[in-house]
Amino acid sequence: MMDALANFHFLRPLWLILIAPAVALWWLERQEADTTARWRAVMDAELLARLTVGGDSRRRLTPGDLLLAAWVIGACAVAGPTWQRMPQPFAQVARPAVFVLKVTPSMGERDLAPTRLDRAREKMEDLLKLREGAPTGLVAYAGSAHLVVPPTPDPAVVTGMAGALAPDVMPRQGDALADAVKLAAKLIADGGQGGSIVVFADTAPAVTPLDLQGAPVFLFPMLPPARASAAPALRAAATALDAEIIAPTIDNADVEGLARLLATAGPPPPAPGEELRWQEAGWWLTPLLAVLVAVWFRRGWVLA
């Protein structure tokens, strides 16, 4: 629902200018139709209402009001309201993703054999096999965030660079999760093809809500399954990042489910050489216009 509101716009917004003269004509018509306006300056309002036929009751809906409503709705319909992109038949099927890998001494713990960091590399490799041909980038972080590999369709480059990462090569110690996620979101935005962010981490600091420009985030806990489900710090970070937590499993069920999510998460990328096309929704207003027009066939309505 929030995505639809964020994407709502008009394809032809200049048509909305027609609403201004409609409102002006409606206001002038009301002023001219009020035959008692000149008497209000010299006569008590309560007395004037008693001396006027129908003066103590006012029509709630007039033909002018109906015409204004039809005019506004018609202008909005012609302006082309939309909030959904049209599917691109020739768009690339594989959507980009950026892996964000935490490289700190805590990732050397052996509660996940052989280590948490090694298990993260294994999960990344399994995920890359399921995403064959999909552009994938890599960001590593500890006390600072660093781009390791920009999105590339070659999985060997990603796995090779991930295998060379170790806590002692990181320039600063710490937990700069927010900086790493923002860097990944920038990579996706600069690519212009959409995409998702996958975070591989065992713990997380306090994170404030970030503007990730619509990039979906998935948090893959590098903890034993029993502990991953009860890690309050990771859950708090997932809430702040609006991220979905991927429950780790001892088999490949977790990466298989994540691969399916990455294939459909976020808006579809545009086809090469094509602009994004939006699905026009103005025709949804035609039934309402038909109802308003039907009221004009009511006996005595126009002359009322």
From TrEMBL:
InterPro entries: UPF0353/GerABKA_families (IPR050768), VWF_A (IPR002035), vWFA_dom_sf (IPR036465). The chain crosses the membrane at residues 12-28, 66-83. Residues 98-202 form the VWFA domain. Keywords: Membrane, Transmembrane, Transmembrane helix. It comes from the Bacteria. PANTHER family: SPORE GERMINATION PROTEIN, VWFA DOMAIN-CONTAINING PROTEIN. This is Ca-activated chloride channel family protein. The lineage of its organism: Bacteria, Pseudomonadati, Pseudomonadota, Alphaproteobacteria, Hyphomicrobiales.
